[in-house]
Amino acid sequence: MSEQVHNRLAMVRAERGVSRQVLAEAVGAHYQTIGYIERGQYNPSLDLALRIAEFFELPVEALFSLRPFRSLTDEVYGRKKQ
Question: What is the pTM for the complete model shown?
Fold first, then answer.
């Protein structure tokens, strides 16, 4: 059984000004793979997820989750789940 892995990769990449190509080269992946991950069309291997997290100097759980992420405004402004 394969679950979708949710991610905030596109948001973090944009925030840091990193292109798919630059990230892909840094973590040893193809730039299209990064796009597939961002769109939820491909679940990264544990190894790739860890390399991406290391690249951004973030814990892996800040980028990837088995559950959907709460919206950033909800997290920042503390709105409760309804």
Answer: 0.85
